[in-house]
Amino acid sequence: MKVRAAVAVASGKPLEVTTVNLEGPRAFEVLVEIKATGICHTDEFTLSGADPEGLFPAILGHEGAGVVVEVGPGVTTLKPGDHVIPLYTPECRTCEYCLNPKTNLCQAIRSTQGQGLMPDGSSRFTTLDGDPILHYMGTSTFANYTVVPEIALAKINPDAPFDKVCYIGCGVTTGIGAVINTAKVEIGSRAIVFGLGGIGLNVIQGLRLAGADQIVGVDLNADKKPMAERFGMTDFVNPTEVEGDLVPYLVNLTKGGAD
Ligand SMILES: NC(=O)c1ccc[n+]([C@@H]2O[C@H](COP(=O)([O-])OP(=O)(O)OC[C@H]3O[C@@H](n4cnc5c(N)ncnc54)[C@H](O)[C@@H]3O)[C@@H](O)[C@H]2O)c1
Ligand SMILES: [Zn+2]
Ligand SMILES: [Zn+2]
Fold first, then answer.
1. Same domain flag for 137 and 158
2. Which ligand is nearest to the CA of 37?
3. Are strands 16-22 and 2-8 parallel, antiparallel or unpaired?
4. pLDDT tens per residue, range 44-69
5. Would the CB of 150 count as within 6 Å of ligand 1?
């Protein structure tokens, strides 16, 4: 089928919005109509050429939400009409990593995913001339339709708004996970968050959930302040407006430093 996509043709070049071919789902794969996608800084990192694992041409995007259109042979957990979020870390539920309580970094399809390919070693996307275009992070959400392995899709409540839940694909889980699982923030903590983009806002949201008392946000861009306050930031610091070194200023603001 023909689909519209924003194609990363080469590193350092702007995305090209164009029509590409998408082959239907093969065994254990699912065709998804993408209804909304976020833009994570990691997409920009890869596009810039600074990502040592970046491959081109590719269809970037990993914060999507959409609807199952068609399932390939062998798919048992999803059906057309299901609402889903693509996962760049899948969940096969059978590998050593999925079964170990210390991690969730499923390895089932990692090697092909890192090469921009589906688990069978091929790509579903091609140019209209038939030249292959690579997948990205196993998700490629900068396209109206994408093909994703069954194990890389989480079924969601159909009432959930696509333009909000798409961020669960990366920013929300990364930000809240960093607070709850990595930093293990306790009630009453003081915290400082550097960078108030997609990740920082969700770190702030996680800090609120964890019951932090003081949540200091640091960003060079003052326009980030109102949204960060909505998510729970208690103090804003713009380093360009701080006289002298930022560190003692933050230590003083947090009465001895962040927890
Ligand atoms: N799972 C992961 O490990 C994971 C997931 C997502 C993003 N990331 C990474 O996290 C970072 C943030 O991603 P994002 O999508 O939130 O980016 P973003 O572009 O939405 O936000 C970055 C923010 O940082 C601010 N900023 C830039 N330089 C600064 C500085 N020197 N001091 C203070 N603030 C500064 C910017 O003004 C902006 O508000 C990126 O490096 C991204 O690649 C990692
Ligand atoms: Zn991301
Ligand atoms: Zn697994």
1. yes
2. 2
3. antiparallel
4. 999 999 999 999 999 999 999 999 99
5. no
